[in-house]
Design goal:
This protein is an alpha+beta fold. It folds into two domains: about 5-30; about 80-175, no CATH class. The chain is built from two helices and seven strands; from the N terminus they run H-H-E-E-E-E-E-E-E. It has helices at about 5-30, 50-70; strands spanning about 80-85, 90-100, 105, 110-120, 125-135, 145-150, 165-175. The strands form two sheets. Strands 3-4-5-6 form a four-stranded antiparallel sheet, with no helix packed on it. The chain has a three-stranded antiparallel sheet with strand order 2-1-7, with no helix packed on it.
Protein backbone atom coordinates (compact mmCIF):
# COMPACT_ATOMS: atom_id res chain seq x y z
CA UNK A 1 0.00 0.00 0.00
CA UNK A 2 1.07 3.54 -0.68
CA UNK A 3 1.53 5.98 2.26
CA UNK A 4 -1.55 7.98 1.22
CA UNK A 5 -3.72 4.86 1.16
CA UNK A 6 -2.52 3.90 4.67
CA UNK A 7 -3.69 7.25 6.05
CA UNK A 8 -7.12 6.84 4.48
CA UNK A 9 -7.35 3.26 5.79
CA UNK A 10 -6.45 4.41 9.34
CA UNK A 11 -8.99 7.26 9.26
CA UNK A 12 -11.78 4.97 8.03
CA UNK A 13 -10.99 2.36 10.68
CA UNK A 14 -10.98 5.01 13.46
CA UNK A 15 -14.32 6.32 12.17
CA UNK A 16 -15.83 2.83 12.19
CA UNK A 17 -14.64 2.26 15.75
CA UNK A 18 -15.95 5.61 17.12
CA UNK A 19 -19.26 5.76 15.18
CA UNK A 20 -21.15 3.06 17.16
CA UNK A 21 -20.33 4.79 20.47
CA UNK A 22 -21.68 8.14 19.28
CA UNK A 23 -25.00 6.64 18.13
CA UNK A 24 -25.55 4.92 21.48
CA UNK A 25 -25.01 8.24 23.28
CA UNK A 26 -27.88 9.78 21.30
CA UNK A 27 -30.17 6.95 22.39
CA UNK A 28 -29.26 7.52 26.03
CA UNK A 29 -29.99 11.24 25.84
CA UNK A 30 -33.43 10.68 24.33
CA UNK A 31 -34.43 8.21 27.04
CA UNK A 32 -33.64 10.47 30.02
CA UNK A 33 -36.84 11.38 31.94
CA UNK A 34 -37.94 15.01 32.04
CA UNK A 35 -37.70 16.94 35.30
CA UNK A 36 -40.66 18.93 36.60
CA UNK A 37 -39.18 22.32 37.48
CA UNK A 38 -42.05 23.22 39.81
CA UNK A 39 -41.12 20.38 42.17
CA UNK A 40 -37.52 21.50 42.57
CA UNK A 41 -36.63 23.12 45.87
CA UNK A 42 -34.59 26.33 46.01
CA UNK A 43 -30.85 25.79 45.74
CA UNK A 44 -29.90 28.68 47.99
CA UNK A 45 -29.25 28.33 51.70
CA UNK A 46 -32.49 29.71 53.12
CA UNK A 47 -35.51 27.46 53.44
CA UNK A 48 -38.61 28.26 51.39
CA UNK A 49 -40.84 28.54 54.48
CA UNK A 50 -38.44 31.00 56.10
CA UNK A 51 -38.47 33.15 52.98
CA UNK A 52 -42.28 33.21 52.94
CA UNK A 53 -42.34 34.24 56.62
CA UNK A 54 -39.86 37.05 55.92
CA UNK A 55 -41.88 38.19 52.92
CA UNK A 56 -45.09 38.33 54.99
CA UNK A 57 -43.28 40.21 57.75
CA UNK A 58 -41.97 42.76 55.22
CA UNK A 59 -45.46 43.26 53.79
CA UNK A 60 -46.88 43.85 57.28
CA UNK A 61 -43.99 46.18 58.14
CA UNK A 62 -44.49 48.20 54.95
CA UNK A 63 -48.24 48.45 55.61
CA UNK A 64 -47.70 49.79 59.14
CA UNK A 65 -45.00 52.20 57.93
CA UNK A 66 -47.35 53.54 55.25
CA UNK A 67 -50.15 53.96 57.79
CA UNK A 68 -47.84 55.83 60.19
CA UNK A 69 -46.49 57.95 57.33
CA UNK A 70 -49.99 58.87 56.12
CA UNK A 71 -51.14 59.79 59.62
CA UNK A 72 -48.05 61.94 60.24
CA UNK A 73 -48.57 63.95 57.05
CA UNK A 74 -50.49 67.05 57.90
CA UNK A 75 -52.65 68.83 55.40
CA UNK A 76 -50.96 71.95 54.11
CA UNK A 77 -51.05 74.13 51.05
CA UNK A 78 -47.76 72.74 49.74
CA UNK A 79 -47.90 70.47 46.73
CA UNK A 80 -45.60 67.45 46.78
CA UNK A 81 -44.51 65.11 44.03
CA UNK A 82 -44.00 61.47 44.96
CA UNK A 83 -41.26 59.83 42.90
CA UNK A 84 -39.38 56.54 42.77
CA UNK A 85 -35.67 56.36 42.06
CA UNK A 86 -33.87 53.22 40.97
CA UNK A 87 -30.14 52.76 41.38
CA UNK A 88 -29.37 50.43 38.47
CA UNK A 89 -26.10 49.25 40.00
CA UNK A 90 -27.42 48.18 43.40
CA UNK A 91 -31.03 47.58 42.23
CA UNK A 92 -32.25 49.62 45.20
CA UNK A 93 -35.47 51.61 44.84
CA UNK A 94 -35.92 54.77 46.91
CA UNK A 95 -39.03 56.84 47.54
CA UNK A 96 -38.70 60.60 47.09
CA UNK A 97 -41.17 63.19 48.33
CA UNK A 98 -40.34 66.46 46.65
CA UNK A 99 -41.95 69.84 47.37
CA UNK A 100 -42.76 72.06 44.41
CA UNK A 101 -40.06 74.69 43.90
CA UNK A 102 -37.51 72.98 46.16
CA UNK A 103 -34.29 71.25 45.13
CA UNK A 104 -33.70 67.67 46.23
CA UNK A 105 -30.34 65.92 46.08
CA UNK A 106 -30.47 62.21 45.30
CA UNK A 107 -26.89 60.87 45.24
CA UNK A 108 -25.36 62.78 42.28
CA UNK A 109 -28.67 64.05 40.88
CA UNK A 110 -30.21 67.40 41.73
CA UNK A 111 -33.98 67.26 41.18
CA UNK A 112 -36.28 70.27 41.12
CA UNK A 113 -40.04 70.07 40.69
CA UNK A 114 -41.77 73.06 39.16
CA UNK A 115 -45.39 71.91 38.61
CA UNK A 116 -47.67 68.97 39.22
CA UNK A 117 -51.11 68.66 37.65
CA UNK A 118 -53.90 66.19 37.05
CA UNK A 119 -54.61 65.76 33.36
CA UNK A 120 -58.07 64.56 32.38
CA UNK A 121 -58.81 63.48 28.83
CA UNK A 122 -61.39 61.00 27.53
CA UNK A 123 -62.38 59.87 31.05
CA UNK A 124 -58.75 59.09 31.86
CA UNK A 125 -56.96 60.88 34.67
CA UNK A 126 -53.17 61.05 34.75
CA UNK A 127 -50.66 62.82 36.95
CA UNK A 128 -48.15 64.96 35.09
CA UNK A 129 -45.19 66.85 36.53
CA UNK A 130 -42.68 69.33 35.21
CA UNK A 131 -39.27 68.51 36.63
CA UNK A 132 -35.65 69.45 36.04
CA UNK A 133 -32.80 67.04 36.74
CA UNK A 134 -29.08 67.90 36.81
CA UNK A 135 -26.15 65.51 37.23
CA UNK A 136 -23.83 67.20 39.73
CA UNK A 137 -21.02 64.70 39.14
CA UNK A 138 -20.38 66.27 35.72
CA UNK A 139 -18.15 69.32 36.25
CA UNK A 140 -18.89 70.98 32.93
CA UNK A 141 -19.50 74.73 32.85
CA UNK A 142 -21.76 74.33 29.82
CA UNK A 143 -23.88 71.73 31.57
CA UNK A 144 -27.56 71.92 30.91
CA UNK A 145 -30.24 69.80 32.48
CA UNK A 146 -30.12 66.03 32.16
CA UNK A 147 -33.91 66.25 31.94
CA UNK A 148 -36.10 69.33 31.65
CA UNK A 149 -39.75 68.77 30.87
CA UNK A 150 -43.05 67.12 31.60
CA UNK A 151 -43.22 63.49 32.65
CA UNK A 152 -46.28 61.28 33.08
CA UNK A 153 -47.13 58.86 35.88
CA UNK A 154 -49.06 56.50 33.60
CA UNK A 155 -46.22 56.12 31.08
CA UNK A 156 -42.82 57.14 32.47
CA UNK A 157 -41.01 55.85 29.37
CA UNK A 158 -42.81 58.36 27.15
CA UNK A 159 -40.47 61.09 28.41
CA UNK A 160 -37.79 59.15 30.22
CA UNK A 161 -34.92 60.52 32.26
CA UNK A 162 -31.83 59.11 30.55
CA UNK A 163 -29.02 58.45 33.01
CA UNK A 164 -26.58 55.52 33.01
CA UNK A 165 -26.93 54.84 36.75
CA UNK A 166 -30.34 56.15 37.89
CA UNK A 167 -33.95 55.86 36.74
CA UNK A 168 -36.56 58.32 38.01
CA UNK A 169 -40.33 58.25 37.57
CA UNK A 170 -43.25 59.98 39.21
CA UNK A 171 -45.87 58.07 41.13
CA UNK A 172 -48.30 60.85 41.98
CA UNK A 173 -48.87 64.23 43.57
CA UNK A 174 -50.27 65.34 46.91
CA UNK A 175 -52.51 68.35 47.66
CA UNK A 176 -53.35 69.27 44.07
Amino acid sequence: MKPGNKKIFVLISIFLIIYPFSTSAVDKIETVPLVNLENLSPTFEEDKDELEKLEKANINKNATENAVEKSSITQSDKVYINMKALDKITAKISDIRLAIGKNFIFNTLEIKALKCLLSEKNNFTDTVAYIQVKDTSVKDNNQVFLFNGWTFASSPTLRSIDHPVYDLWIVGCENI
